[in-house]
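Teaching soon. Invent one.


***
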Amino acid sequence: GHALDWAAVGGSTRRAEMVLVFMPSLLGSAAFTFASYVQVAEVTHSFNVLRPPDRLTIGYAVGLLNFVGSSLFLVASLGYLVQDADHEELAQWEYAVSEWGVRFTYGVGSACFFIGALVSFQEISPDDMDDDDA
């Protein structure tokens, strides 16, 4: 994208790429993972978000899907850091990291966010959709 174009203008392509592309992805993923953790902790009223609550709710399902999706995005962002600077030819292990560590985890994480958004519609009551309050 455009960030890579800017990175090429900056001289040291790998360093600029790290600053403009990889680090924002990593920091953003870490922030979203923390926010999702807090969301699940709020729903479960416990800091142990891996232990399901006594009563499963839609809010818990959405929070858990967001937490899993955010965690997968974080794993994918970390996958960028293991590649060598030369992007012309990838070694077999780099290709595997690119396919499974980055693309697959971004894909599954995106599916978690999408399913969580669809499930969220169940919590919208007809009263929430009233335009009279606006």
